[in-house]
Amino acid sequence: xxxxxxxxxxxxxxxxxxxxxxxxxxxxxxxxxxxxxxxxxxxxxxxxxxxxxxxxxxxxxxxxxxxxxxxxxxxxxxxxxxxxxxxxxxxx
Length: 92
Prior knowledge:
It is built from three helices and five strands. By secondary structure, the protein is an alpha/beta fold. It has a single domain (2-91), classed as Transcription Regulator spoIIAA (2-Layer Sandwich).
């Protein structure tokens, strides 16, 4: 199960706290939220993945389309960081 908590940092940035396993159907909710904030509101999106324990291949592919956008991933475990390393720039 995937839990997403939206936290607004300021007018230009939103933090999405992600907890659980990222896979279907949860990835579609995450993808929809990222698209909304990046394209409709033009906010920077920060994915706080401290609580993520697993991410499947389909979810990695879904996140790949945000690779060159204003998406930042923080607080990854070493396992999740290794899975994301070729897709998205993350900051710790």
